[in-house]
């Protein structure tokens, strides 16, 4: 079996009387795309927040590359190689697409306390950043302020940023959201290849994309994972059909 | 490479500022030299603030603390140099500007680190009020500590000295201040273009994103706050030497407000915003002050109009919207 | 003797705290409901004091002056809300700071224009002159006790207003969800004007009452404003309860610090030096308290929301 990169163990998070995460255990193995699906309000966002570090779980722990990261902050987890995209695009709006990626390259190099060298003349920043933009097909838009990019382009930019971090695992929060059919198709193809660089935990509503991409699928309902399995197993699972796919079946 | 419109305007501004004292000498109106020196010093103070306010988006309402500390460092070192009394730990005073500036940098660096460490744990309105409160604390300390003049302030009998220059000559002192302003602008421009500047500006635009790529905004902001206080502090030392007086009013919250006003009048986050703002402000003060005793009333009205209707300041008006590479 | 002195100092601290509460309640209410930071709140305090002093001098009645202070500050508040402040709700904090800073310049210089540079004086009304005997043999001015009582009454009144009335319900709704209150069909613009005028009236009222203890002059509101900022930062911005507790804390700590620190230091240092050090330290004390509280709870003692 492939090596486990990210391992979540018995995670619990309460908001007052509401148990938003109820003993979730989940793992992500080298080379796979593991999709996390579930109806609205199932607690996917809460779970993502705990994995990337914006929320602290009440119980349980999270291991990443063999290290316990439960107590670490967002920036520390990112430095260890946990790359993420956001449900709503999160970029520095005044910076150009290129500078957004350059920031990630700089972060990866761990050199934010340099005061005197202009970044735009620093080829150790511009070249890798440009290469990432080329990979996601955004090179032609490198100089455009991120605020002026289209919705789909911002999604691509976020992925370029995650790539630049040379992450050891990707956490992609609804990357297909708001993309047209063309864009979704292109992105699906791209993610398909990406899994060989680093495994992907994919939270996604677009079932076509999930069924096309996922090696394994976990179904989250009311804060609990009701089942984990391959695409075929999930399609056939009666519990999933009633809880989640009920209206499609 | 062609000059951008903003660069051209910047050049014109600095040449204009540099030319005023010489014209003033030529027409026998040395008073204008003092005016130009005041502009250069206030601009330098605002360049410091612009680092946190413009690049970092952190509205510090307490930068008068650094301005005042710089002033008092100049005053206290000069007082001990002239009396010959040791300062503390057996250290002597000094009437040499470079020494004074160095001490100012150290003291403001320490104070900036301390104030920043507490204030930057918060954000938004909390940050505004806390920086204000800390500068007020230093103000009350200066007022209630009688050893160095208390409420009356501290006179500097003879302007401190600069090696090889007669600093008592107004034009020489202006050139010293102009040199410091240009050095400050150079530093600001380097920092803005650097990796540190990139992280600082990105943290203003989207702190969540910055953390998500693995850069913690807090240490970046703390370093910027400290640097910023150090620059404003040196301006304070120059200001005390200009007036030959360090007064508690340099630490008052009006001063903090004025520094913010300078930046916004000129154009927030722009390299020459503080210069344009200081020129406008001092000229307003001088022109309105010549017309009416109540000039602050009209300054208030103008400021209100700028905030409500003319965002982007003078440079926004002249050079268009700011662009980030 | 010492106990009487201590009680006296404690009451002085309480009186300062009560005044700070009147200022801080308005500030924190305005921030909580409209998200606005208002530096000109101290100007409204000054407007109240000047209105009270002027009307009291005219009519000979402090009580009419007090009514005038409420009316003048509320009116001034409503006018600046309608002309300036409401344009600032959607702006960032920097714009709010600048515009209200500009208002301070206009108010201060305008007041100097109308009333001149000399301070006005306001007498304590005959009814409240004199002193009350305290346990331990000392006497305490009746007027200061009255201020404490009035402050307590206002605190209760505000509590009832916000928890029991229709206006209070709307204010609470405005604090938690601005869209929802629009959906409820409440006219937000009017609500905002009312809240701003209410906060202004509280500030003006405080200014008028303090005016009889100190002189009435331009700039009198600014030290109080900054203390009120410290209060709401400690108490948690947006929380009236936090403002009350923060105000009493700041009032008592500041007053007792000025009284006790020189005495404590006198144990360790020669008296002259102890006096100096103690005075200087006491003036910094509340800011140090604030820093310590923030180091532990960066959003204040009582966080209103979020």
Automatic annotation (TrEMBL), chain A:
PROSITE patterns: ABC_TRANSPORTER_2
Pfam families to which the protein is assigned, alphabetical: ABC_tran, BCA_ABC_TP_C
SMART domains assigned to the protein according to its UniProt record, in alphabetical order: AAA
Chaperone listed as a keyword: no
Recorded GO CC terms: plasma membrane
Name of this protein: ABC transporter ATP-binding protein
UniProt-listed InterPro entries: AAA+_ATPase, ABC_AA/LPS_Transport, ABC_transporter-like_ATP-bd, BCA_ABC_TP_C, P-loop_NTPase
UniProt organism field: Metarhizobium album
CDD domains named in the record: ABC_Mj1267_LivG_branched (cd03219)
Record keywords, A-Z: ATP-binding, Nucleotide-binding, Transport
Gene Ontology molecular function, alphabetical: ATP binding; ATP hydrolysis activity
Domain ABC transporter as annotated: residue spans: 6-247
Domain of life: Bacteria
The keyword Nucleotide-binding appears for this protein: yes
UniProtKB/TrEMBL annotation, chain B:
Name the UniProt record assigns to this protein: Branched-chain amino acid ABC transporter permease
Transmembrane regions: 7-25, 31-53, 60-79, 99-118, 125-148, 171-191, 222-240, 260-284, 296-319
Membrane topology reported for the UniProt record: Multi-pass membrane protein
Statement: the UniProt record of this protein carries the keyword Magnesium: no
Species for this entry: Metarhizobium album
Gene Ontology terms: cellular component: plasma membrane
Superkingdom assignment: Bacteria
Subcellular location: Cell membrane
Annotated GO MF terms: branched-chain amino acid transmembrane transporter activity
Pfam families xref list: BPD_transp_2
Keyword Membrane: yes
Record's keyword terms, sorted: Cell membrane, Membrane, Transmembrane, Transmembrane helix
From TrEMBL, chain C:
Superkingdom of the organism of origin: Bacteria
Signal peptide location: none
Pfam families according to UniProt: BPD_transp_2
Localization annotation: Cell membrane
The keyword Transport is assigned to this record: yes
Transmembrane segments: 16-37, 44-60, 66-85, 97-122, 142-162, 190-213, 225-253, 274-296
Any GO MF annotation of the entry: transmembrane transporter activity
Key words of the record: Amino-acid transport, Cell membrane, Membrane, Transmembrane, Transmembrane helix, Transport
GO terms classed as biological process: amino acid transport
Any one annotated GO CC term: plasma membrane
Membrane topology: Multi-pass membrane protein
InterPro entries to which the protein is assigned, alphabetical: ABC_transp_permease, BCAA_transport_permease
Family that this chain belongs to: Belongs to the binding-protein-dependent transport system permease family. LivHM subfamily.
Name of the protein in question: Branched-chain amino acid ABC transporter permease
Source species of the chain: Metarhizobium album
